From TrEMBL:
The keyword Nucleotide-binding applies. Gene3D superfamilies: P-loop containing nucleotide triphosphate hydrolases. This is Branched-chain amino acid transport system ATP-binding protein. One of its GO terms (molecular function) is ATP binding. Keywords: ATP-binding, Nucleotide-binding, Transport. Transmembrane segments: none annotated.
Length: 263
């Protein structure tokens, strides 16, 4: 679905993404891991249109989307979430969901004056849709709570719910587990798997929690120093000497060796 070809993003003399090439296949939950500074979030930002690449190409289902702005990509079904959730804190959880779909009738002054019945019908449909999303995510009890009062994990669920209010084709999740307790992280993981299996969502997930990655993701892509270092299943990645050296750390290798010697 997404193909990245020889992508570069430079900030002065710093090469945050330095010739990365990868593919995110339709229907997968692809993990993207690597040490801090590997270029993962910069890569996300280029794909999602928040940054223009220095060079290289990004295609979606064969269409060149290089450098398209986020709103244009949103219309094509490419969405992303952020490590720090971007909710509208003074609005309710349900209202945060209802405002997502673009082109609503109530957004124009003309309709506000002369098409009130149309607006009412549309809002009723959006209300039903939002309640369905909240039920799916098991947070319907929070529908009237101000979004700013939610915990970090609940805000991540709300961001995931916002992607469900439109016809998302691929969703980029940036450190969905950051600041989230284990119980809520399991709930988020369950929702991602269900969206993938039941609704055909494609996901690409940046995450440092390897247990979470192993549970959800296949394949897993490893980045280091702005380039793709390795790709494979979670088990293959965790056994790859290059990955152990660059990201997982020699401590893991030594621990495994010590365990083998003890056995």
């Amino acid at each position: 679905m997404i193909r990245v070809e020889n992508l570069h993003k430079h900030f002065g003399g710093f090469h945050a993404v330095d010739g990365a090439s990868l593919e995110i296949r339709a229907g997968t939950i692809t993990g993207l891991i690597g040490p801090n500074g590997a270029g993962k979030t910069t890569l996300f930002n280029v794909i999602a249109g928040r940054l223009s690449p220095t060079s290289g190409r990004v295609t979606m289902a064969g269409e060149d989307i290089t450098g398209l702005p986020p709103h244009a990509l949103f219309g094509k079904g490419l969405l992303r979430t952020f490590q720090i959730a971007h909710e509208f804190g003074s609005m309710s959880v349900r209202e945060n969901l209802m405002m997502v779909p673009p082109g609503q009738a109530g957004e124009t002054l003309w309709n506000a004056w002369f098409a009130r019945s149309r607006i009412a019908r549309e809002e009723e449909a959006l209300l039903r849709k939002a309640d369905e999303v909240l039920d799916f995510l098991t947070i319907s009890h929070l529908k009237d709570e101000k979004a700013g009062n939610l915990s970090g994990g609940q805000k991540k669920l709300l961001e995931l719910g916002r992607t469900m209010m439109v016809d998302a084709r691929i969703v980029f999740l940036d450190e969905v587990g950051a600041g989230v307790n284990r119980t809520l992280l399991n709930t988020i993981g369950d929702a991602i798997v269900r969206l993938n299996r039941e609704r055909g969502y494609t996901f690409c997930v940046i995450e440092h929690d390897m247990d979470f990655i192993k549970r959800l993701c296949d394949p897993v892509i490893v980045m280091a120093e702005g380039r793709v270092l390795a790709e494979g299943s979670a088990d293959q990645i965790m056994a790859d000497e290059r990955v152990i050296e660059a990201y997982l750390g020699t401590g893991l290798k030594n621990k495994d060796a010590a365990a083998g010697a003890t056995a």
